[in-house]
Amino acid sequence: MPTRRVRCRLTGPATRADALAAGIRDWQLRHAGVDRLSRDTYLPRALSGEIGSRLAAVLLTAPPGAVASHLTAAVLWGLEVPLVDRADRRVDVTVPMTSRAGSRRDRRVHRTPLPDGDTTQLGAVPVTTPERTWRDLAGVLQPAPLLAVTDQLLARGCRRPDLEAALVGRPTGRGSARARAVLPVADPRAESPMESVLRWLVHAAGLPAPALQHVVRDAAGRFLGRADLACPDRRLLVEFDGDVHRERDVFVDDARRQNRLVAAGWTVLRFTSADVLGHPDDVVTGIRRALR
């Protein structure tokens, strides 16, 4: 006789007390469809991939005044952060300085002062402002991904003086030097996070600052193409090719475009994430040689 399948009764984030009050027994919390995020936080497995659901579960047992921050706040603000461990699904929360709450397997707890102006609400979720999020991320990201975040913030309307003010508010401590190094390089014209990472490689190597989204025309003024990065005086174009460039139509267009540019006397260097992440020294060497 086949075993009767027991339906998962948990429908949202809950503590054990919440579950018991809803009539869910302890043995039902051990259902295969339930994730035990930490010692007293449960979530339906179907929702465990959603950052909002994981955050809601964590806030159930977080101390009063806890807010989403750091990488979690970045995701909530719609920012794409490259070069981070996607397998790490912990939620970042900042708690009041007086709290004794510690990190658990489902959360990273940060303890820094939280002035009123540094927090806001996204719907019903307490979260650090974009400017405060940027200053927090400066303490946990390397310069290349921090530049990618900074470019995105500027492109979305965050003002450079507001980021500078966030740094003035916390002028010392972890990430302060990194934030000062990255902010002058940031540019809202960057069109992808990995393009920003490539630009940081160029900057860190001491190479000439490239022009972004440079439009190339022939002698008659006809459009030949637009490049991610360019050194027009050396007739050098540098491109980052993401996954979309593997699609057949895009690949064909790229080949035709490159032929037009090379025929017009431009050198075109194209790099992928395998180059930028796996062989950054080779990327820098290739650009340096082309500049010579």
TrEMBL record:
Pfam family, one: AbiEi_1
InterPro entries: AbiEi_C (IPR018547), DUF559 (IPR007569), Endonuclease_DUF559_bact (IPR047216), Restrct_endonuc-II-like (IPR011335)
Region (Disordered): 99-122
Domain of life: Bacteria
Residue intervals of the DUF559 domain: 227-291
Residue span, AbiEi antitoxin C-terminal domain: 67-183
UniProt protein name: Transcriptional regulator with AbiEi antitoxin domain of type IV toxin-antitoxin system
Species of the source: Geodermatophilus tzadiensis
